[in-house]
From TrEMBL:
Coiled coil: none annotated. It comes from the Eukaryota. The keyword Repeat applies. PPR repeats lie at residues 47-81, 111-145, 173-207, 235-269, 297-331, 398-432. GO terms for molecular function: RNA binding; zinc ion binding. The lineage of its organism: Eukaryota, Viridiplantae, Streptophyta, Embryophyta, Tracheophyta. This is DYW domain-containing protein. Keywords: Repeat, Transit peptide. GO terms for biological process: RNA modification.
Length: 706
């Protein structure tokens, strides 16, 4: 930094100098270092205090190099200069040794402020042992020194040591009392906090708010409200603390009533209401709060995106995230993770890549939680290669990342690779958890590895000390059922140490559908009706089994039963991403799409090509007793075929066509898409409710084992 030649005096009480020094400090506090520097350069007379104000401002605004340059060029320094230097160097962990060296080399007798500045740095960075040692060496202490170390003990959860120090304090101000009270609240010792509150010689609004917040955070919301009502004064933080308590307790109606009664609606309170409404599924109310806000921060955007995501307003979540980026708001971790979850749910790879780019710009690519969500997004969007590259580049890996890759390979039908990663995980010293075993067992199930699956299941307790749960038994039932061992799967269910749930009976039901075992299917359907009386799925499957066996009368009775019980069946739908838009297709309703004319032409063209290749429609996947021509017509308009047809029309030939379906892919469509991939020389990736199917050259990655 080049400083102009001006007059210098170590000190001056001239009003112009004092005013300029105060202006430098004020501008620095607001982050306007350009203005502070301009004021400094315009001064015809500078003092040591002028330099102190400028370089302390640089430190405060995270410009340490500029601060040190000013310090090194000071014509004269006083004790305040060295205190400011120690304080500035204590802001960053890696410069704490420099701060300690500065304290040791001060050319003046160091003051209590000198020691306390370094003490605060140790506490700020969690170096409590160093802080305790320095505190013991201090020749003089004041109430601030004690309060700083008290905060260090409380931040580390060492409440009893904090209380001992608190009792030793020669003088305690309201800050120390409130810090000790809050420390008790943070560890759930609410009775001791209240005793301390009652003993306080003087309370302020911060003390009252701390006690209200303590009750609220520890589930005692009614007591929090009683204390809130008798507060002699309240501020925004008081109101917001009470609001947080209601939201945390799930009492959104009380929170809304309090919110409406607030004299002002600070940013934190509005953000909290958006979160609370989102948790209760009140998306319109959350959106109304968001729209009324004059000021928004990254927490606001994160809250509304989360509200959309958790309530399956998925497209709204994506568009809101893009709007946030467009207006220049830097995303935070929660918003990135929420939108990656949405991209994974919708399998919209282009959006996912866009979010990955935002992560790189914001340096979130080194955060383990964000990277785990990124890996999951790429896996669920069908880009396993990219997921593996991200996984390989990140260190150290946690169990969540390993689980994502194991499950991802399993869902893509790559059982050998999934089990190889399972072995690599253990070789790396990572202990598998329950989710790891679900992924490994799923890999065995999807690839017919019965022996390997049995070995893994039986080794859980021995190798990891994990007792198999419902999810693991469901995997084993699925594994045995897919392999045609339906009776053995039923025997396993009968001997389970826990009561089987709907997932387990559903897995057995799927196996019965695959192997046309109507007898055990009827047992499964009966159990599922008891567990999920409103779910039509098991009866639709049973109807499929009857239909595929030519038992049209039984199938008809089953359809009448479904109708009479008002059971709900989720309609089959598929979607595909093109040109940053999600295009939705519903089975049998091709006319709903605005480009239905060209889609119909493509479907007719594909029909002709399929017939020429020897394809014959499998009418067993049509539930109704209609003639073969009508069955073929019905199958042609299944949602996944519509989506594939649209992809052939729109997606460039060098790119794979990626389709997502909400239900399991239809067996006839599976056969047809294999042939379509071969005829058109295209790669088609279809993700259904269970797994991925990668169609290429007339084959599927599932090897028809699904």
């Amino acid at each position: 930094m080049r400083l102009p030649a001006v007059r210098f005096l170590p000190s001056s009480s001239a009003p112009a100098v004092v005013d300029a020094n105060a202006r430098i400090a004020r501008l620095a506090r607001t982050g306007n270092m350009e203005g502070a520097r301009a004021t400094f350069e315009a001064m015809p007379l500078r003092t040591t205090a002028s330099y102190n104000a400028l370089f302390a401002g640089y430190f405060r605004n995270h410009l340490p190099d500029a601060a040190l340059r000013v310090f090194q060029r000071m014509p004269s320094r006083d004790l305040a200069s060295y205190n400011a230097l120690i304080s500035g160097l204590s802001l960053r962990r890696h410069t704490l040794p420099d701060a300690a060296a500065a304290l040791a080399t001060i050319p003046y007798p160091p003051s209590v402020v000198s020691f306390t500045s370094l003490l605060r740095g140790y506490v700020r960075h969690g170096l409590l042992a160093d802080a305790i040692q320095l505190f013991g060496q201090m020749p003089e202490r004041n109430h601030i020194s004690y309060t700083v170390l008290l905060g260090g003990f409380l931040d580390a959860g060492r409440v009893d040591e904090a209380r001992k120090l608190f009792d030793e304090m020669p003088a305690k101000d309201v800050v120390a009392w409130t810090a000790m009270l809050s420390g008790y609240c943070q560890v759930g010792r609410i009775a001791e906090a209240r005793t301390l509150f009652d003993e306080m010689p003087k309370r302020n609004v911060v003390s009252w708010t701390a006690m209200v917040s303590g009750y609220a955070q520890n589930g005692q919301v009614n007591l929090a409200r009683k204390l809130f009502e008798v507060m002699p004064e309240r501020n925004e933080v008081s109101w917001t603390a009470m609001l947080f308590g209601y939201i945390q307790a799930g009492r959104i109606e009380d929170a809304e009533e309090l919110f409406n009664a607030m004299p002002d609606h600070p940013l934190a309170a509005c953000n909290a209401m958006i979160v609370g409404f989102g948790q209760r599924g009140m998306v319109d109310a959350a959106k109304a709060v968001f729209n009324r806000m004059c000021e928004r921060d990254d927490g606001t955007w994160s809250a509304i995106i989360k509200a959309y995501e958790q309530n399956e307003f998925l497209m709204e979540a994506l568009s809101t995230f893009r709007e946030m980026l467009h207006i220049g708001i830097r995303p935070n971790y929660p918003s990135v993770i929420s939108v990656l979850t949405v991209c994974a749910a919708l399998a919209v790879l282009d959006y996912g890549r866009e979010v990955h780019g935002a992560m790189l710009r914001c340096s979130f690519d080194m955060d383990i939680f964000a990277v785990s969500a990124l890996i999951t997004m790429y896996i669920k969007c069908g880009n396993l290669d990219k997921a593996k590259r991200v996984f390989d580049m990140f260190e150290p890996k946690d169990v969540v990342m390993w689980n994502s890759m194991i499950t991802g390979y399993a869902q893509h039908g790559l059982g050998e690779e999934a089990l190889r990663i399972f072995d690599d995980m253990r070789l790396a010293g990572m202990v598998p958890d329950g989710i790891t075993y679900i992924g490994a067992l799923t890999a065995c199930s999807y690839t017919g590895k019965v022996k390997e699956g049995r070995d893994i299941f039986n080794s859980m307790g021995t190798n990891s000390g994990i007792k198999p749960g419902l999810e693991h038994y469901a995997c084993m039932v699925d594994l045995l059922g897919r392999a045609g061992l339906v009776e053995e799967a039923l025997d396993l269910i009968k001997t389970m140490p826990v009561e089987p749930d709907a997932v387990i009976w559903g897995a057995l039901m799927g196996a019965c559908r695959m192997h046309k075992n109507a007898e055990i299917a009827e047992i499964s359907a009966k159990k599922l009706l008891e567990l999920e009386p409103g779910n039509a799925g098991p009866y639709v499957l049973l109807s499929h089994i009857y239909t595929s066996s030519g038992r049209w009368e039984d199938a008809s009775k089953m359809r009448k039963f479904i109708s009479s019980r008002h059971l709900n069946k989720s309609p089959g739908c598929s979607w595909i991403e093109y040109d940053k838009r999600v295009h939705l297709f519903t089975s049998g309703d091709v006319l709903a799409h605005p480009e239905h004319a060209i889609i119909l032409k493509m479907l007719e063209k594909l029909d002709g090509l399929l017939m020429e290749s020897g394809y014959s429609a499998d009418g067993s996947f049509v539930l109704h007793d209609i003639d073969d021509e009508q069955k073929t017509h019905s199958l042609r308009y299944h949602s996944e075929r519509q989506a594939v047809a649209y992809g052939l029309l729109k997606i460039p030939e060098e790119l794979p066509i990626r389709v997502m379906k909400n239900l399991r892919v239809c067996g006839d469509c599976h056969s047809a898409i294999k042939l379509i991939a071969k005829i058109t020389s295209r790669e088609i990736i279809l993700r259904d409710a269970n797994r991925f199917h990668r169609f290429k050259d007339g084959f599927c990655s599932c090897r028809d084992y699904w």
